[in-house]
Amino acid sequence: MPSAPLLTSSSRRSLTIGGLIFILLTVAVFSYQFYRIQAGDDLPRLNQLRWNYLILILCFLPLETLVLGLRIWIMCRVLQPGISFWTCFKADLASSGIALLTPSQIGGGPGQIYMLNRGGARLATALNATLFAFIGTMLALLGCGLYALFASDVGHVGSMFVGAVIILALISASMVFFGLCPGFFRAGIAAASRLIWKIRGKNYPLKDWWPPDHSRTGSPADRMDSFSCELADLVYTFRTDLRQYLQRGKISFVIVCLLSFTFLVSRCLLAYFCVRFLGIEVSTIGIILGNQIALLFLTYLSPTPGNAGIAEGASAWIMENIVPLGFAPYYNLLWRLSTVYIAATAGLILVVHRIVVDHCYLNKIKFPSIHLPKRR
C-alpha cells in the first residue's frame, strides 16, 4: 500500500466549507438568472429542441476525462512505467471532483496526486505528472488565446481577455524559468527566510543548504530555515525531473500539449452543442468557440470553489449576444452539467470511496461487501 497520508481533519473541514460555498453560490446565481426572466421573454420549447445535439453531448461527455487520463498515463510511462491507464483515468476524475471544492482549476491537483499515489505511483512521480500536465494546459491555453486574440473576435471582453492572457503567460513563463534556473528562486526564498529570522529575533537556528544532488562537502550553497530548505529542495528536484523528462520524453510532451489542446477544444464544442440543442441558430461555430476560449481564460483562475457563480455569470455575459435572456439559465445549467458537474460528481465518489478503503485498511477494518444469497 502506498504511503501517502489520508486527508487530515483540517483538509476535510476546508473541503466541506468549499462544498457549502459552491452550493450556495450555484443556487444563488441560478436563482438570479431565473429571476431575471420577464413575462414576455422567449423560453425554450420542447418542439424546438434538437435531440441530435443531445446525442453529441452524451458522446462528448467522457471524451474530456479519457483525453486527460491518457495525458497523465503518457507522462507516467516516462516518469514511472507500470502505472495503469485506469489509475490515471481515476486520478483525473478525482482532480475534477476536488477542483469543485477548491478555488480555481488547479485546486484539484492534490486529488490527482492522492489517487495516483494510491494507484502505485511514487509521490514524486504524482507531483511531477501534475506539474507537467499544468504546463501542458498552460501552453495549450496560450495557443487558444493567441487564436482568439488575432483570428477571432472577443468583442466586449477584449481588455479583460488580454489581461488574462498576460497573467497565464507570466505563470507559464515563471514555471519554466524556475524549472530551468532554480537558483534565482532559491536565492529569493533564502533572503526572505533570513529576513523573517531577523524580524523574529533569531530565536531558531538556520540550516546549511546544498542542492539535493550535491555531495554536501565544503561551504554550503546557502543558509535558511528548515521549511525554506524543503521548498528549495522541491524546486531543484523539479528542475532535475523536468530536464530528464524533456530529454527522455520530448515526443510525449508534445503529445501532452496536443491532448491538452484537444481537451480545451472539446470543452468549447460542448458549449456549441448546448446552444444548438436549445434551438439557437443566431451564431456561427467560430464565434461560439472564440467566446468560449475567452471564457476559459477569464474563469480558469477564478477564486471561488469550482468557479461557482463566476463561471455562470461570466457565461451569461459573454454569450448574451447569442443566448437570449430567457434561455440563459437553461443553457448555463446544461453547459455546466456537461462540462463540470457530472465528471466532478464521479470524481468525488471515487475519492470518498478511496478514502474509506484506506481508512478501513489503516484501522484493520474489513471493507463491507454485498453478498448475494445462495440458490437452493
Write structural notes for this entry.
The protein has 376 residues and is mainly α. The chain has one domain. Helix content is 69%, strand content 2%. Strands 1-2 form a two-stranded antiparallel ribbon. Helix 5 packs antiparallel against helix 6, helix 6 crosses helix 10 and helix 9 packs across helix 12. The relative contact order is 0.16.
Describe the strand arrangement of the main beta sheet, using strand numbers. Answer: 1-2
Q: Shape, please? A: elongated
The largest β sheet comes out as: 2 strands, antiparallel
Q: Tell me the fraction of residues in β-strands, as a range.
A: under 5%
Helix content: 55-70%
Mean pLDDT: 82
Strand tally is: 2
* Model regions low in confidence, pLDDT < 50 over at least 5 residues: 1-5, 369-376
Query: How many H/I helices?
Result: 12
From the alpha carbons, calculate the radius of gyration and give it in angstroms: 24 Å
User: Number of domains in the coordinates?
Assistant: 1
Helix/strand order: HHHHHHHEEHHHHH
Summarize the model shown.
The protein is mostly helical and 376 residues long. Helix content is 69%, strand content 2%. The chain has one domain.
